[in-house]
Specification:
Blueprint lengths: L1 H110 L1
Length: 112
Amino acid sequence: MKSDYGAHQQELENQKDRLLNSLSEQTRVRNLRLGLIKLREDRSLRLARQEEERDQLNERLDHLNRLSAEATEKIDRELKIVGNLKADLEEKRAGQGEQVRIRQEIEGEIQE
């Protein structure tokens, strides 16, 4: 009877060890799954954050492109104005040169 009791006790110990090992394995698998879920959530958050940053950068780039286009248009207008002023000045100088030449001719005729 003692040997039956000892064998039964040993069988119970073995069952207990198997149950503990099974529980330990289940806990390990559960923790791995939770870790994987956490990694996926972190990745999703990181991707969402990167997408938001990319959208913000694209908006800033669009804004800078608009500013650049406006600045280019303004420079073109100002260059046109400068070109017109330069042409007017050259025309005025040419007219003054013509006046000087006429005056010199008149003075030359008077002196003769």
